[in-house]
Amino acid sequence: MSSGQHNGSIWKQPTAVWAVAFASVVAFMGIGLVDPILPAIAEQLHATPAESELLFTSYLVITGLVMLFTSVVSSRIGAKRTLLAGLGFILVFAFLCAISGSVDLVIGFRAGWGLGNALFISTALATIVGAAAGGSAGAIMLYEAALGVGLAIGPLLGGLLGSLTWRAPFFGVAVLMAIAVIAISVLLKTPPAAERPQPVRLTAAFRALGTPALGLLAVAAVFYNVAFFVLLAYSPFPLGFDAMGIGLTFFGWGLALAISSVWGAPLLLRVVKRTTAIVIVLPLIAVDLVVAGILVESKAALVACIVAGGFLFGFMNTILTETVMDATDIPRPIASSAYSGVRFLGGAAAPPVAALLAELGGHTAPYVFGAAAAVVAAIVVLTGRRLLARADAAHETPARQAEAVALGDAG
Are 240 and 149 in contact (CB under 8 A)? Predict the structure, then answer.
């Protein structure tokens, strides 16, 4: 997408839009927030790396499962109530994480956090587009900006607060979410009944996954997310930095991901088809992970691989999501809900498996595992390429490209 497609009105938005955008920043911060404090949680709560990695797994499992039904929920109770429910769950469970006395409790409360995150993220984009001034492309770009800030700032805030105590990042999120709840309650209006969407069937996401093209992409996304979360969730352990050092490293990761997803992917898709881009970038991710595994004892090399991985993941998030949205004639909210749900479930297994592999084969083994998963994802897309001809042929407007960026990084 080109920045020239957006006029000055992108920043001249109703206060309701800014309230949702602020809440979006905080919600996306939660994805990388725990990275810098994983080693501290493992040490102070007497947990193994595999046990502390379950903080990601519980969060991702519940997020993935709930995302399969979020369109059902929001179509029945409305966007504002869905947003507030999501934020409320995040607030409560972030606070409970902060006061927990065992790693088992933190793992359980992170699952509740995942429930809130799924409800909020799946509804925020549509809410911003509906309430914004100046057209959908500008509104989506604003959402992208919130998303990029959240992904980059999350690890940095986790490092800053985590240098005080591992509990501080959780308290920080609870406070910010309380502000977001108040802002949305006051500033976001409930639309008239006539403007509310038709209720979505309970089985809509599962029916969507039965479509060959979407089913193929969901399988590829499972393996892709294994690679994604091996790098994101396991790397704090071999890095060996303090909370601030880990936070700065993953700030670079989030910044690289945001840059490539917003600007890099659209540029690449001007010269190659989507499926071609996928089978180019996924092997590059595998190479990056193999190099990370070989050079894992070098802190500088591992940091470089983490940031480079963020750059490559940004491409894939956007390109895969664009492909999902245009591969079938399924309504886009339902297709996105189905794809995102399966994708999160795929990523849920990666962190504890990576930690167990490290116990058996050292720090190199998890990265080899992630690289193999990226190669499998590439093979899945390559062998099923004919099913994705519709997505390769689809014409993208700037607004559709922008939405793909937003949904890709959200998922």
Answer: no
CA atoms of 89 and 130, how far apart (whole Å): 24
Q: In angstroms, what is the C-alpha Rg of the chain?
A: 20
Phi, psi of 164 (to 5 degrees): -85, -55
| Per-residue model confidence as pLDDT tens digits over 372-383 | 999 999 999 999
Class of domain 3-410: mainly alpha
Q: What are phi and psi of 100, to 5 degrees?
A: -70, 150
> What is the C-alpha to C-alpha distance for residues 269 and 318, in angstroms, rounded to an integer?
10
DSSP characters for 330-354? S-HHHHHHHHHHHHHHHHHHHHHHH
Which is nearest to 255 in space by CA: 121, 409, 26?
409
Model pTM?
0.83
With beta carbons less than 8 A apart as the criterion, state whether 342 and 242 touch. Answer: no
Mean per-residue pLDDT for 346-372? Answer: 94
How far is Cα 347 from Cα 342, in angstroms, rounded to an integer?
Answer: 9
Angle between helix 364-383 and 274-294 (nearest 10):
170
Q: Answer whether 279's CB lies under 8 Å from 381's CB.
A: yes
Q: Decide: 124 and 91 in contact? Cβ < 8 Å.
A: no
- d(Cα 305, Cα 321) in Å, to the nearest integer? 24
Report whether 353 contacts 261 (CB < 8 A).
Answer: no
Domain ranges of the chain: 3-410
Dihedral sign, Cα of residue 396, residue 397, residue 401, residue 406 = negative
